[in-house]
Amino acid sequence: MDLGIRGKRALVCASSRGLGRGCAGALAEAGVNLVMNARGAEALEVAAAEIRARAQVNVTAVAADITTEAGRAAVLAHGPFDILVTNAGGPPPGMWSDWARDDFIRALDANMLTPIALMQAVLPGMMAQGWGRVVNITSVSVKSPVAVLGLSNSARAGLTGFVAGTSRQVAGKGVTINNLLPGIHATDRAIALDSAVVKAKGISMADAIAERSATIPAGRYGTPAEFGAACAFLCSDHAGFIVGQNILLDGGATNATL
C-alpha cells in the first residue's frame, strides 16, 4: 500500500534502537525524510546510516537529550515537520513505596511534559498547512496498569489525558494525534524488565522470557518492525479519520472487551 506520505518530513524521537528505530525505518520505507533523535551519538549515526542506505531518503541525525529545553531546541531547529513521533525510555520499575517526588518529576519530564512540549511546538505549523500526524509511543499500562511500573503508569496516563482533549481540537485542521500502546516487544526495555525478573526469581534469562511469553496470547514478544508498520499507517494519508485513539500492540495480553 502506498501510504501517501512520500516526501513528508518526520521527527522521530529515541530512534537509534527499539521501537523508535522501527518507526523510523517504516516511515523511511514509505519515502519520508527523517530527523532522527537520540542521546547516544554513535548508535544514532549507525541507525541513520543504515536507513539512508536502505531507503534512500534524507536522514538527519541529531544527538540530544529531548527531555531538556536545549535538546528540544536543537532538534526542532531542523523543522518544520509534517509528522512527529514522540518516544522516550520508560522510568525504572519498583514499588509504590520506593518513589519520592523527584522520581515522579523525572518520569513526568520524560514521558508526559516532553511529548506535550513537542506537540505544542509543531502543531501550529501542521494546522497552518492543513495536514499533520502525531503518534505518541506510550505504554500498555495506560489501559492496564502494571504494578511495578507506577511511574510510567502515572506519567503516561497524564499524556493520554492531554491527547484526548487536544486531538479533538486540531482534527478539523487536518491534523491527527494518536497513541500507540506497546506491550512487550523485543527491545532493550524488555531486556531490562526480564533482567529484573532474573534477579528477583533466580532464574535464567531464557526462562524469564518464556515465562513472560506465556502471558501473551500470541505466544511471543512483538518486533520493532511490526510496531513501526503500525506507526507508519497512523502517519499515513489514509489515517485522517483516526483521532485521539489509544491502540494496543500487545499480542492480546490485555484481557479487555474494549
Could you write a compact summary of the structure shown?
The protein is of the alpha/beta class and 258 residues long.
Mean pLDDT: 95
Beta content: 5-15%
**Strand order within the widest sheet?**
3-2-1-4-5-6-7
| Poorly predicted ranges | none
The main sheet comes to: 7 strands, parallel
What general form does the structure show? globular
Please give the share of residues in helix: 40-55%
| DSSP strand tally | 7
Structural class: alpha/beta
Count of separate DSSP helical elements = 8
The CA-CA distance between the termini, in Å, is 28 Å
Radius of gyration: 18 Å
* Secondary-structure element string: EHEHEHEHEHEHHHE
Description:
The chain is an alpha/beta fold and 258 residues long. 46% of the residues lie in helices and 14% in strands. Strands 3-2-1-4-5-6-7 form a seven-stranded parallel β-sheet, with helices on both faces. Strand 2, helix 2 and strand 3 (59-63) form a beta-alpha-beta unit. The radius of gyration is 18 Å and the shape is globular. The two termini are 28 Å apart. The mean pLDDT is 95.
